Amino acid sequence: MYQERLLRQLLRPFVQERRVSIRIGTENPLPEARGCGVVAKTYVGGMGVRGVVAALGPKRMSYWRAVPAVECVADELTEHLGAVGTA
What we know:
Elements: H1 2-11, E1 21-24, E2 36-44, E3 50-58, H2 63-86
Antiparallel strand pairs: 1-2, 2-3
């Protein structure tokens, strides 16, 4: 439960972003995440529902792999959930 709350707090700022966002180390708002890197992008579903797809890893993770993966998943979710919301 504690970890779930921390994860929500960590990802909440990304909900307003339109593009892939990257935060590394001290750029993360939570002290518990300062040893990590986060790559995140918002997806939008039917009826305006929003969520965040993210890769959370060590500061030295392969960002060149994480960025396109997160972007692809978020874009696919937006496309498919948007279609469901309009059906």
